[in-house]
Design goal:
The chain has 199 residues and is mostly helical. The protein is built from 9 helices and no strands. Helix 1 runs parallel beside helix 8.
Length: 199
């Protein structure tokens, strides 16, 4: 049995982080709930733009700082592992709630800014993306293509999830169940990230 390729591991890491509940995904689900799938679709372009800018900025910072701070990449990976573990515990202990239909839904600009400031961007830049992605233009384009290919269906999934909540078709899927499932995934990923960083 062949070991998983670097691209497969990259895609897996991207999917795990992107699919977990967070501020951007909450806004996408709320938009699906309030606007419906078709009218909420443009928000995915704002999400992609926000992530691309934030990840590129973090990646550039980490890559250039590593030239005179050799310990920085490893330290940031360990910090990311601890942060993910913290998120896992926080998600388990408190229910993830989606805004109800009575709440105002964020627009394109609000979702863009929310994504731009999303801590997940730092995780992608310092722990998920390979260092070569910020040193070689070809590697950057390839990595960002994989990222975009994962983001679009996951964003659509969250919008669809919100729309389904509005119809009552997912009454059995409580926010608590979503959160606890996500917390288990995050905890597993945190341990795996720490293990690969230390060894």
């Amino acid at each position: 049995m062949h070991p998983p390729s670097q691209s497969s591991l990259l895609l897996l890491g991207i999917v795990i982080i992107l699919i977990t509940p967070g501020p951007t995904n909450t806004l996408l689900a709320a938009a699906g709930l309030r606007r419906g799938i078709k009218r909420a679709m443009p928000l995915m372009a704002a999400e992609l733009a926000g992530y691309l800018i934030a990840i590129s900025a973090w990646g550039y910072l980490v890559t250039h700082a590593a030239n005179f701070l050799a310990w920085l990449p490893t330290s940031m990976r360990i910090a990311c592992s601890v942060y993910i573990a913290y998120l896992a515990v926080a998600m388990w202990r408190a229910a993830v709630s989606l805004p109800t239909s009575a709440h105002k839904t964020a627009g394109v600009s609000a979702l863009f800014v929310t994504t731009l400031l999303n801590p997940k961007a730092m995780l992608f830049a310092s722990a998920i993306f390979p260092p070569s992605a910020f040193a070689d233009p070809i590697a950057y384009l390839r990595t960002m293509s994989i990222f975009a290919a994962a983001l679009i269906p996951i964003g659509f999934l969250w919008i669809t999830f919100g729309a389904a909540l509005g119809t009552g078709r997912l009454a059995w899927l409580s926010p608590e169940r979503v959160q606890r499932g996500a917390s288990i995934v995050l905890a597993t990923f945190s341990v795996a990230l720490a293990w690969t960083t230390i060894h």
